[in-house]
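Our preliminary data section would be incomplete without showing what the modeling component actually yields. Below, a chain of 128 amino acids is followed by its predicted structure, encoded as tokens that our downstream tools consume directly.
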Amino acid sequence: MDPAWLDYNGHVNDAAYATISALANEEFCNDIGISAPYRLESGRALYSAQLTIKYLHEIAPPDTIEVVRTIARVGHKSLTLTSEFKVGDRAAATTEHIYVLVDSRAGASSPFNAAERARIEHLIGHQC
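Predicted structure:
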């Protein structure tokens, strides 16, 4: 656990939940092919549109955090990932992260192509 993630009470701070969620989701993006090389070649990437965090239990050292992600839904140009932050068998927090696929060259949102959508739809409801 990064010491910078702790607040004055020694618990994980609000910003760290967003950071941990974003790091876990970056791994997911690589898994579905929306990786750094893809982003450079296509000019397309997932942009955060909304993040909701629900705090259930405090997290503090020496806790080890496991993040379990689930694709909740995929739209024409967006997808929603939910994550459960687990400490042992206990859910410590949940997040819902809504992303929009953006074509940075066009400066606008962009629909998923058929192959991207198929990869994502195949994973809906599954933990990843």
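The radius of gyration is 16 Å. The chain has three helices and five strands. Preliminary results of this kind motivate Aim 1 of the renewal.
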